[in-house]
Design a protein that fits this description.
Arc Repressor Mutant, subunit A, alpha+beta, 18% strand, 57% helix, homodimer, DNA-binding, elongated
DNA sequence: AATATTTGGTTTATTTTATAAACTTGTTTA
DNA sequence: TAAACAAGTTTATAAAATAAACCAAATATT
């Protein structure tokens, strides 16, 4: 029987966010928005879910006088991604290995 | 900007179904049910979506006197999976290659 | 110097999707 | 012959994703 895919990660936008953060260590709201093409509302909601899950940390500060929200991945998030990718590979089996 | 992940494939149960079919070429309703652990209702709905998308073919026949639904992947389905996996790898980048 | 616009978001409402519960049709079994 | 089972489908509910509307502060415009 197949393992379940972590439902927090198995979401297009949340996976996109996590994929960016796993590579860059830190990214702000505006960058995530342009990179993912998400609406601000959607991005806000999904960042919140990732934070509640303990997968990312969100720091609110200022860039000069303008607000700035900086996100980075937590160890828990990195571990969850590792497991998610493992599970994905179990699903996709040979199909993914052959590329 | 990240490419969208085919929403028909980016669903746990549908991905599980497609993953089984990509490896086995053909599987019946009962097998898919036990293998995925899905409820019959959910499986029925998701098979229907995959069929409407043209990703699988569904043949209804009999196993003795009992109904039997056999599913197999279409060329279009195989192509969609190829693309989906490519896109996933773009998302996951190095994280997936290192395993 | 008032007012309009832009930036960087959040909150709330709507739509879509996934899932489960209830039902159907026919078949064994007691 | 009635109860239980198999193999599904249909419909109702719960959860999720997404967008629309809103807000506060900063900057630009007339």
């Amino acid at each position: 029987m197949l393992k379940p895919l972590n439902p927090i990660l198995h979401s297009e936008l949340r996976l996109a966010i996590m994929s960016i953060l796993i590579a860059t260590e830190s990214a702000d709201f505006v960058y995530l928005r342009t990179e993912t093409g998400a609406t601000a509302g959607n991005l806000s909601v999904q960042l919140d879910k990732l934070q509640r899950a303990g997968y990312i940390e969100i720091e609110k500060g200022f860039n000069g006088k303008l607000p700035r929200t900086t996100c980075s991945m937590s160890d828990k998030g990195r571990e969850a991604m590792r497991e998610y990718i493992d599970t994905l590979q179990e699903y996709l089996g040979t199909a993914i290995k052959s590329r």
